[in-house]
Amino acid sequence: MSPNKIVKTDAEWRAQLSDIEYKVLRLAGTERPWTGELLDNKDTGVYRCRACGAELFRSSTKFDSHCGWPSFFTAENDAVTLLEDSTLGMLRTEVRCASCDSHLGHVFPDAPQTPTGDRYCINSVCLTFEQAEPA
Q: pLDDT tens, 39-51?
């Protein structure tokens, strides 16, 4: 385990997170599509893990994939871990925060319009947004 890994008890996570945040971040749930507060955010800044505050994505990598959740074509270096997910009868790649192991969403190789070809489909409830300071 990394020395910087954030480890909390289930009770600590429940006390820190709202019911929906806990369901998605800690139990690998999913928020309803088209409902997330950051879905249409076009401001410049940084997207962070709602559970631990780790920097995950930059606004410059966000794009509109029309899937109902915020989408990014790449994550910050070493910010996420990818795991095979065979739930729901399909094979997908789960995205987790590398700092606190919270579920964020899934990544799909179906975005040819992006520089990486990837679509990180991330639950808005898993993110906070830090707007960049004006230049």
A: 999 999 999 999 9
Please indicate, yes or no, if residue 5 is contained in any of the structural domains: no
Catalytic residues: 121
The answer to pTM > 0.70 is: yes
The pLDDT tens digits of the residues spanning 46-66 come to 999 999 999 999 999 999 999
- Strand runs labelled E in the chain: 45-49, 55-58, 62-63, 71-72, 80-85, 92-97, 103-108, 119-122, 127-131
**37 in a domain, yes or no?**
yes
Give the range of the structural domain holding residue 20, as residue numbers without chain letter. 10-131
